[in-house]
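Title: Comparing notes on inverse folding

I've been comparing how different people in this forum approach sequence design from structure. To keep things fair, I'm posting one structure and asking everyone to reply with a full sequence. Here's the target:
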C-alpha cells in the first residue's frame, strides 16, 4: 500500500516527489510519456525560462534535470515509472485501486499533476504536409540548424520564443501568424523584432512544395500570395490534449479544488495546470507552491498525529 501516487512527472510532479520524500511518504510517480519533464522536455527543452525565483534565466531541460536530481537525492525517493498511463481508479474503504496499462496499485491518496493531460502537437493541415520530413513540431536541440533558413508557423509565446532562440543560430528566421497581433507577451515580441526576425502577419498558409519528401517552399496568402524558401519548417499551433481519466468535478477544463488542493473526491488532489480555483494563475511557480500545500495536507492525512515541520 502506497501513501501517495503522483500522476505526471512534469516539473510540478517532480517537485511533489521531492516533497513527498521529505515528508516521509511512500509512493510512486507515474508518467505517460517515455521521459520525465512534461512539455518542457518534450517540446521546449532549449527554451530559456526567465520567471523562476533565483534564476535570471535557465534552460527548460536544465531545470527539469535539476528537479529530477533533487527528487532522486532523497533518502527514500519515490520510484518514477515512465511510459505508464492511469486507466482508472476505484475507491475501496480507505484507499484507491489504481489501474494502469501495466499494473495495479493500492494507495491512500492520489495527486494529479497532469497539466491538461497527455498531449500531441496540432498538425499543419495543408495538402501533402505529412510526407515532408523537414517539418518539425518538437524542438529538442538546435545544433543542426546552424546557418539554416527556417520558417516558424504560430503566434503564441512558444512560437515567438522559438523565433528568438533560433535567430541566434540560424541564417534567417521568419515567423508567420494568421492574426494581426501576436498572442505572445509584448516583451517577447519586441525582442523578436530587435533580433531581426522576419515577421509575416496576417497570413494564412496556402500550400507547400518540395521534392524527395523534403519541403522547399511555403506559399502564404493574404491580399496577395508570397512564397518563402526554407530548410526547415517549424509548426507551433499548440497542443491537442488527451484529458486525464478521472470522474471529478471540473471547471475551466481543470479539476476544481479547495484551498488545500483536494478535488471533489476525498483524498484525491490536483495541482499545477490540472487544477482550478478562483484566482488561479497558470505558471510553474504557482504550481510549485500548490505542491507544498497538497503534500502538507496529504502528510496530515497519512500521519494525523505528526508534528509537521514548516521547514526541512
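Reply #1:
Here's my take.
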Amino acid at each position: 500500500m502506497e501513501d501517495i501516487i503522483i500522476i505526471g512527472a512534469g516539473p510540478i510532479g517532480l517537485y511533489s516527489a521531492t516533497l513527498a520524500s521529505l515528508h516521509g511518504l511512500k509512493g510512486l510517480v507515474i508518467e505517460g510519456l517515455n521521459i520525465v519533464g512534461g512539455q518542457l522536455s518534450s517540446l521546449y527543452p532549449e527554451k530559456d525560462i526567465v520567471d523562476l525565483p533565483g534564476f535570471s534565466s535557465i534552460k527548460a531541460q536544465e531545470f527539469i534535470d535539476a528537479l529530477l536530481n533533487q527528487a532522486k537525492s532523497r533518502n527514500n525517493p519515490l520510484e518514477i515509472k515512465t511510459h505508464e498511463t492511469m486507466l482508472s481508479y476505484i475507491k475501496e474503504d480507505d484507499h484507491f485501486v489504481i489501474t494502469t496499462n501495466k499494473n495495479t496499485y493500492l494507495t491512500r491518496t492520489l495527486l494529479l499533476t497532469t497539466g491538461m493531460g497527455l498531449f500531441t502537437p496540432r498538425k499543419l493541415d495543408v495538402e501533402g504536409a505529412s510526407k515532408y520530413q523537414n517539418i518539425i513540431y518538437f524542438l529538442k536541440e538546435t545544433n543542426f540548424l546552424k546557418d539554416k533558413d527556417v520558417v516558424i508557423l504560430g503566434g503564441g509565446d512558444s512560437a515567438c520564443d522559438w523565433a528568438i532562440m533560433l535567430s541566434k543560430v540560424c541564417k534567417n528566421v521568419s515567423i508567420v501568424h494568421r492574426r494581426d497581433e501576436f498572442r505572445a507577451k509584448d516583451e517577447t515580441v519586441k525582442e523578436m523584432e530587435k533580433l531581426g526576425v522576419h515577421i509575416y502577419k496576417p497570413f494564412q498558409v496556402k500550400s507547400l512544395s518540395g521534392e524527395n519528401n523534403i519541403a522547399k517552399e511555403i506559399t502564404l496568402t493574404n491580399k496577395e500570395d508570397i512564397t518563402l524558401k526554407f530548410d526547415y519548417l517549424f509548426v507551433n499551433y499548440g497542443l491537442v490534449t488527451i484529458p486525464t481519466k478521472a470522474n471529478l468535478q471540473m471547471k475551466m477544463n481543470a479539476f476544481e479544488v479547495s484551498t488545500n488542493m483536494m478535488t471533489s473526491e476525498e483524498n484525491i488532489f490536483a495541482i499545477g495546470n490540472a487544477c482550478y480555483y478562483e484566482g488561479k494563475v497558470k505558471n510553474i511557480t504557482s504550481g510549485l507552491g500548490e505542491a507544498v500545500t497538497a503534500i502538507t495536507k496529504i502528510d496530515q492525512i497519512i500521519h494525523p498525529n505528526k508534528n509537521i515541520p514548516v521547514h526541512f
